[in-house]
Inverse folding.
């Protein structure tokens, strides 16, 4: 059996714990979290075999200890958990910034037992109640092992990560912090700033807020993320974020100048270049952004509607990868989203559903 300890069992800790429990039979989970409701839920749902409000003796059984609180709290928790760490236990974290914890590990002389981690998947939702076993599926899980961790220990941990459904990828801490500042941290600032812009410019009736459609909602979904988490990320990856933010401000300044000068050729090149590069992300066969074979359809708001659709597809040998209600209606139309394994299934499903009178949307 492998005993995994979790210090913080929110969205990410909870999702890792669920994935391990779902995919393996040999996992024991010991968790601590200051949130009482989380401890209750995790025990009731049989995700945590043992749950405590704070680090305690029980953690001396752990083969791995995952630090899964917001980044600065992970540093504090690392210090608290050390007295409960058995020899050979691997310490790891899931924090979105890697350099500060890496420095702390060096200063504590723990360079033979720490593997920094960062799953490149998540959501704007918070807490254990929103955690999912499938959250990390096919996502890169960045590993930044300290220099003296034995190769065999790194390989074992990679195996554990793979069994969560994630793809382990080794990246050095400082490089990690620069790269994630560009693809994750800056976008969260941009999203929050856009939301503030609309709030500050809307009229008394909130017309902007009412009519905001897919474009605004797609680019600002992440503005609903945890302010505690993002404040701590900004406070710990400040230099990288600030440098990239300056480059971004400069780029916006150039666009503003092109607008003021009615420079249509430059504006066209700006959008065209972005489109080509962004499309190349989607077209990649592997990587975190996968091709999405999904459709949406309108269904009556009554019991059995989802079952009727899934049965119809199953009877016609069309396999469903995922099915669920679209709660936020960002897509404007259709309330049921169905994801398939391959492109072919989309055409077949649409023909079948349309013949039965369903209105479908791609
Ligand atoms: N949310 C994401 O999309 C995402 C993705 C990858 C990595 N991360 C990283 O994962 C970590 C956790 O983020 P999350 O999204 O799961 O947040 P979360 O708010 O859902 O969960 C954090 C959990 O830590 C607990 N906690 C808070 N303070 C604590 C403390 N001092 N000691 C112990 N537990 C404490 C909270 O009760 C909560 O259950 C962060 O370091 C974040 O940078 C987040
Ligand atoms: O999908 C989201 O909601 C996320 O913000 C996830 C996201 C990101 O892509 O920026 C957020 C923080 C992380 O550390 C890793 C992933």
């Amino acid at each position: 059996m492998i005993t995994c300890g979790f210090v913080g069992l929110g969205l990410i800790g909870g999702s890792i714990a669920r994935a391990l429990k779902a995919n393996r039979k040999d996992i024991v989970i010991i968790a601590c979290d200051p949130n009482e409701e989380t401890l209750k839920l995790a025990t009731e749902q049989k995700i945590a075999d043992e749950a405590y409000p704070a680090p305690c003796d029980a953690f001396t059984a752990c083969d791995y200890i995952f630090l899964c609180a917001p980044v600065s709290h992970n540093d504090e928790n690392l210090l608290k958990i050390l007295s409960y760490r058995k020899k050979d236990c691997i310490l790891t974290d899931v924090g979105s910034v890697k350099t500060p914890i890496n420095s702390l590990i060096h200063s504590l002389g723990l360079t033979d037992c720490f593997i920094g981690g960062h799953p490149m998947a998540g959501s704007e939702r918070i807490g254990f109640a929103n955690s999912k076993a499938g959250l990390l599926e096919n996502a890169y899980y960045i590993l930044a092992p300290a220099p003296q961790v034995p190769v065999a220990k790194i390989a074992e941990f990679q195996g554990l990560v793979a069994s969560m459904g994630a793809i382990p990828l080794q990246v050095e801490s400082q490089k990690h912090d620069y790269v994630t500042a560009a693809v994750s941290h800056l976008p969260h600032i941009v999203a929050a700033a856009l939301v503030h812009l609309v709030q500050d410019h809307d009229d008394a009736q909130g017309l902007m807020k009412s009519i905001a459609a897919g474009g605004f909602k797609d680019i600002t979904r992440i503005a609903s993320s945890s302010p505690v988490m993002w404040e701590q990320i900004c406070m710990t990856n400040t230099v990288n974020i600030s440098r990239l933010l300056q480059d971004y401000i400069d780029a916006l300044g150039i666009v503003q100048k092109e607008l003021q000068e009615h420079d249509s050729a430059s504006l066209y090149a700006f959008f065209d270049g972005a489109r080509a590069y962004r499309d190349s992300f989607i077209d990649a066969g592997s990587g975190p952004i996968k091709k999405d074979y999904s459709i949406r359809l309108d269904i009556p708001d009554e019991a059995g509607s989802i079952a009727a659709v899934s049965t119809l597809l199953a009877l016609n040998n069309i396999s469903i990868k995922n099915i669920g209600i679209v709660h936020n209606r960002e897509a404007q139309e259709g309330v049921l989203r169905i994801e398939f394994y391959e492109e072919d299934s989309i055409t077949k499903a649409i023909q079948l559903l349309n013949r039965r009178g369903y209105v479908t949307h791609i």
